[in-house]
Write a structure and sequence with these properties.
The protein contains 12 helices and 24 strands. With 526 residues, it is α+β, with helices and mostly antiparallel strands. The chain has 4 domains: 3-250, von Willebrand factor, type A domain (Rossmann fold, 3-Layer(aba) Sandwich); 279-332, SH3 type barrels, CATH 2.30.30.40; 342-426, SH3 type barrels, CATH 2.30.30; 430-514, Signal recognition particle alu RNA binding heterodimer, srp9/1, CATH 3.30.720.50. Helix 1 packs antiparallel against helix 2. The two termini are 35 Å apart. 44% of the residues are buried.
Length: 526
């Protein structure tokens, strides 16, 4: 069975002229690439074309007759408003009626939607606010929250590419609720590059279908794209990796039985919320009395947009606002939880691979430190988030096996690699210590919503300039690109691609600063 892809294309009046020409060219590049992939590999692809403009309609149902798809693209004409909701509903119907799940090396590879728009959604009255809500509700039907009810074969991620006067926050939310990806192209000419990389992502999946370790490797994907002449910024690379994981139905990585996407995805990642395992204390808008007993807690779940679930160290749990209602009940702190033995591990404890580890490099390699964020099966299984952001369920006594060891305890079992111990400052349990002993860290925000630190040298240079003039500008080089930094706007701009990212200046205690830099360095290893 071929892979199913729906191209959901904005053909509203604002796409007239150059926009429509570039969209057609990008679709041609995509179809040429899909056809070439089918010739090179055993992975064929069915394509459907849906437009939303003066009409929202299915121009071509799912087919591997690519000339039919080309003909449908050639007939695209821009006019009318932007009925994105109707387009999503047509795409959903086509996948339900004619779509399916292809198997790659015993793993399901689910359908995908590629959504391109240059405008804001409108309803039949030309209203945008109501249309926006409709679109988000429609998007949820594709993702972990709604796929079963809609009788989809599996959750379907949506890759969103926006340009012009699009609503970036809406596209970001669509990508979030469907576990897809989101990219803004500053110039319409960049559409072809985006569509080409979508082709290469599937070619990568086909090439490494028998090697799940490579298939899950960000470094392997980057090397694969470089070999084919594609230079991809870190943020888009992260998005491509996340999108591929969603298509492969991979949520947790520790063994096939632990994937919970198939059960509806009860462990979602919501952008803008503290990462699973983050340590917190009561924050500026706290109004919940002594629920925390004036202690620390750990983020154990993203409940919904703007709200997290926290387990306090005293054992109590509850939901708290982190953006909802414009309030922040919590503040992040760098106070790791300490356990004496691995069988006493709790949410917030730091761990490394242990004596019975059998999960290849899911942790990013020997010595990488993860954080426990949930205890399951009466304590014999734990959920861990690794520095890369990947998460998994691991044995902590289940079947007599221990996949993990404490990060602050050396591994003693024979044949095990020496453990990388974390520098723990026990005195940091006092909330005033991290502030006095820490330092400022400059970070930039990638497409997945994660904050990534600059290098130590760049941080020192940026801090020096900022101290002299908080509204200054400067330039820095990273990964063969030059970036313009505007401290007044708190933005960085890629000089070549014109892509703009948010930056921030945040205070971290010394341990968290070193850990953040170490994680980023591990991601950069080639």
């Amino acid at each position: 069975m071929p892979l199913d892809t729906v191209l959901l294309l904005d053909t509203s009046g604002s796409m007239a002229g150059r926009g429509m020409r570039e969209l057609k060219r990008a679709c041609e590049v995509f179809l040429d690439g899909v056809e070439e992939t089918a010739k090179q590999t055993n992975l064929k692809e069915n394509i459907a074309i849906v437009e939303f403009g003066a009409k929202a309609q299915l121009l071509q149902g799912l087919t591997n007759q690519y000339e039919r798809c080309r003909q449908a693209v050639r007939l695209l004409k821009p006019s009318g408003r932007t009925p994105m909701f109707d387009g999503l509903m047509i795409a959903l119907k086509e996948i339900i009626t004619n779509g399916g799940v292809v198997t790659v090396a015993g793993r399901p590879l689910c359908p995908r939607v590629i959504l391109m728009t240059d405008g804001q959604p409108t309803d039949d009255k030309g209203e945008t606010t109501a249309a926006r809500d409709q679109v988000l509700n429609a998007a949820k039907a594709f993702g972990p929250q709604g796929w079963k009810e809609c009788k989809l074969p599996h959750p379907v991620p949506i890759a969103c590419v926006g340009c012009g006067d699009c609503d970036p926050s809406l596209l970001d939310e669509i990508a979030t609720v469907t576990k897809g990806m989101f990219v803004i192209v500053q110039n319409i000419e960049e559409l072809s590059s985006f569509f080409k990389r979508q082709v290469l992502l599937i070619r990568f999946a086909a090439k490494f279908a028998q090697d799940m370790e490579q298939l899950r490797s960000r470094i392997a994907l980057a090397a694969f794209l470089r070999e084919l002449g594609e230079r991809v910024e870190e943020a888009e690379l992260d998005g491509l990796m996340q999108f591929l994981f969603a298509m492969l139905c991979l949520q947790t990585l520790a063994g096939d039985d632990d994937d919970d996407t198939s059960s509806g995805g009860d462990d979602p990642v919501i952008q803008g919320l503290p990462a699973h395992g983050s340590r917190v204390r009561r924050g500026p808008d706290w109004k919940w009395g002594n629920q925390d007993k004036s202690g620390c807690g750990t983020v154990i779940k993203h409940y919904k947009s703007g709200i997290v679930e926290v387990e306090w160290d005293h054992g109590g749990k509850n939901h708290y606002r982190y953006g909802a209602e414009g309030a922040t009940d919590l503040q992040l702190v760098g106070e790791p939880r300490i356990a004496r033995r691995i069988d006493e591990v709790k949410p917030g404890c730091k761990v490394i691979r242990g004596p019975d580890w059998q999960w290849a490099n899911q942790d990013g390699g020997p010595g990488n430190i993860g954080v426990v964020y949930r205890i399951e099966d009466s304590g014999v299984s734990v959920r861990v988030r690794w520095p890369s952001g990947l998460r998994g369920v691991y044995r902590n006594g289940k079947d007599g096996k221990h996949d993990l060891n404490l990060a602050n305890v050396s591994v003693q079992s024979s044949g095990a690699l020496p453990a990388k111990t974390e520098r723990l400052n026990i005195s940091s349990q006092s909330p005033s210590k991290p502030e006095r002993e820490g330092r400022f860290c400059w970070q930039w925000k990638d497409n997945s919503g994660s904050w990534r630190p600059y290098t130590i040298e760049q941080i020192d240079s940026m801090e020096g300039i900022y101290q002299k003039n908080p509204n200054a500008t400067c330039k820095l080089d990273r990964d063969s690109y030059t970036y313009h930094i505007d401290f007044g706007k708190m933005e960085q701009q890629n000089i070549d691609t014109k892509a703009v990212r948010k930056i921030r200046r945040t205070h971290l205690n010394r341990d968290d600063f070193d850990l953040a830099i170490g994680i980023e360095q591990s991601l950069q290893l080639k």
